[in-house]
Design brief:
alpha+beta; 4-stranded antiparallel beta sheet; rod-shaped
Amino acid sequence: MDKLKFIKFTVFILTFLLVFGTLSALGIVYKKLNQKTIVSDISTSLKQPIGSTIADYKIENGIIYILVKNGGKSDRILLLDPTNQTTSATITLN
């Protein structure tokens, strides 16, 4: 009788781990797919080449400084004016 309880307990634990692992994996995949879409949308709206990624940003004195990397160009900093949502300048880094 004890062996049967042990087998039932083991099956219950393995089933729980299988369901939990599957849901976790699906959540991670959904999060990664959604994140790539957001980054590509931002790069497109900033009129940057495909493959550009936003590495960092800083808000100072009412101007948003955005560090953009990749995209076949050298690293660059975009100065974005939040009032009219336009890029006022681009600083290319070497």
